[in-house]
Amino acid sequence: MTTIHHRTCHICEANCGVLVEMDGREVVSIKGNPDHVLSRGHICPKATAIADLQDDPDRLRRPMKRTAEGWQELDWDTAFREIAAKVAELEGQQARSAFYRGNPGAHDYALSTQSGYLQRAVGARGTFSASTLDQIPHHYAQFQMYGHVSLAAVPDIDRSQLIVIVGGNPVASNGSLWTVPDFRKRVKEMQARGGRLVVVDPRKTETARIADAWHPVRPGTDTALFIGILQCVLAQGDTLRPGLAELVDGSWAKVKPMVDTFDLDDLAQHCGMPADTIRALAAELASGKSSAIYGRMGVSVCEFGAVNQWLIQLINLATGNLDREGGTMFPQPLLDLVGQVGRGSLRTVETARGTLPSVMSEIPTVAFADELTRDDEQRIRTLFVIAGNPVLSAPDGRRTEDALAGLDLMVSMDMHITETSRHAHYILPPCGPLEKDHFTFFFGPLAVRDFGAYSPATLEMEEGAKADWEIASELAQAILSAKGKQVPNLPTPREQLDAMLQASPAGMTLAEVEAQPNGVDLGPLKPCLAERLLTEDKKIHAAPDPLLEDCARFAETLDTTPAGSLSLIGRRHVRSNNSWLHNSKRLVKGPDRCTLMIHPIDAKERGLQDGDLASVVSRIGAVEIAIEITEDIMPGVVSIPHGWGHHREGVSWQTAADHAGVSLNDLTDPERFDRLTGNAVLNGTPVTVEPAQEIVAAE
Ligand SMILES: Nc1nc2c(c(=O)[nH]1)N[C@H]1C(S)=C(S)[C@@H](COP(=O)(O)OP(=O)(O)OC[C@H]3O[C@@H](n4cnc5c(=O)[nH]c(N)nc54)[C@H](O)[C@@H]3O)O[C@H]1N2
Ligand SMILES: Nc1nc2c(c(=O)[nH]1)N[C@H]1C(S)=C(S)[C@@H](COP(=O)(O)OP(=O)(O)OC[C@H]3O[C@@H](n4cnc5c(=O)[nH]c(N)nc54)[C@H](O)[C@@H]3O)O[C@H]1N2
Ligand code: SF4
Ligand SMILES: [Mo]
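Structure for Molybdopterin-dependent oxidoreductase, as requested:
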């Protein structure tokens, strides 16, 4: 007899509802839940990988300790006791400690509620995380304009007539900072009602393929496009629509003079898009029909990431589309995170490299290796890595790797010996994903409908297994005891979730939410900005000084095209997720996906044929990779997906190692970052590409 269990897929931001059919502990099938209020039956090929993750033969089941003789299994109590003793000893030596938090932690509400507790017990100040490799510019712009790092506006796709996507590929990524499961179908529905999708991207992506128009843009130059659009929109008048005008502060008057300092033809030349295309885009966005412009990784992990995210908000504001049906709207989910966590902060942090921005108390990950290797008493000697793989995810992975080798204590919470955790002294593996419960914690506030969904654990915990939150909480207790401190009695994640749900405007209890296994639908997004602004004067801050000043800095970069080199960007594939789904045989099967995409003109110039091995060299390093010649990438640009490079010795994910690929981040450069936010610049890396020389062994 099989049983059907309702779950939310925890892998990506789409948070699809799935139906898991179980026969005892065996997964029989995983299907989309047609009755799920948000995903309506949609799933992607990664959903089946939940079974592969659960049953992964290479997954660690017990704490591991690295010894001179190799990895040794420990019981939990011994692992916690040894780690706690070492943390206390290092604290006694005034050693600096730090955390690196990876992306999967954000998909685990329970861990999210407890990991701060562990960090406080360790006494680690500041955090490195995947956020400064990703979306920190969004948080910065939201804090500056709306007064809260998490007060985000998302395109209201179900009622929109035009969506312009700049530097995002939701057909592959399933949406980011925009929880929009079944994106493809929602686009079809928009097109069926006469709406249009436009994509601006150096590559003709999977999303560009279903779009009504694709405009190639030179990597790292979108600021010119946004300023150009804004200039054209404001040339028709800068009076804001009623409803928005009253919400905007006096700095709005500074926007038009700023954009008017630029010449549209210069902007067009800089970004490689014809001035007429920019004019037409502006006219369409401002035509009065409900429309939205949205920008993601491609315009976030770049030198002017914060400015870009700000300009996007300004375009939606200027065209009257902010906080309007079919434009961009602020979700009001079942659990109102914005109302219950602090506004966030913008500060600075002193690093070996000098003063860097610190948004939300993050230390920019571009400085990670520096801080691990600096030669003063501020060197990080104790490191906790929580569900992260910075060797493959952060720029200059080789240097990160070398830096990790010098730690006095490194603890990784991970279920594999990865490129990163292989350097740990202890690895603490969580239970399988089906043994965890789930709530749409960080993603309700980004969803295309007001909603929330809770799913209980599908399987009972295996004997001796622990969820991530239990590991964090029990280790924190052990550390506090070792330091001779009092161990507080904390609420469990479920208790915290229940309290937060009840304190939210929807006011439901966890039990009430749990009784709706298809999710709780609170309806379409609603205009609400007037009540939700969290700036002190309750106004939208249209033109904060640091952003205006950074536009002046941008002006100085116009036309500084690095000659002679190609510009390297990344890419995502629907059957992959950052570095960690490559151990699933069904996801990695088929032709090698870790290839260098190159335009036929650039390949010909270099004497390269499809499938040839090329040597790709940047300031940081070199890789050899098979090339894929395609007209889907613009001339002058090449692309390698990130998250590969599993050839490192000693990793435990065998299937991943068999499909090793090379790491894009062995080429990216930590010296390149967004000055306002410290976010890494991961696209637009200057590289040379040549046929790889056959290495002839010396006699
Ligand atoms: N060049 C380039 N680099 C990039 C990007 C890019 O576009 N280009 N993208 C960046 C982005 S957006 C991000 S978010 C980062 C991601 O950067 P990271 O978060 O550092 O890397 P991941 O690949 O997500 O690694 C997650 C690790 O957590 C483990 N893991 C998975 N699930 C769980 C779990 O439930 N519990 C625990 N304890 N561990 C788990 C996996 O085994 C894996 O080792 O990469 C960034 N790096
Ligand atoms: N299948 C899959 N899904 C994922 C992930 C994954 O690895 N695989 N990762 C998850 C994570 S952590 C995140 S953050 C999201 C990311 O979600 P998205 O941002 O939607 O995904 P990307 O594929 O990184 O899209 C960035 C796009 O920007 C383009 N681009 C690069 N440089 C530039 C530029 O300078 N200007 C412009 N205009 N475009 C540029 C790239 O060609 C690419 O198409 O995806 C999430 N979902
Ligand atoms: S789109 Fe994301 S949430 Fe939905 S099934 Fe795929 S991986 Fe899971
Ligand atoms: Mo990300």
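The chain has a mean pLDDT of 97.
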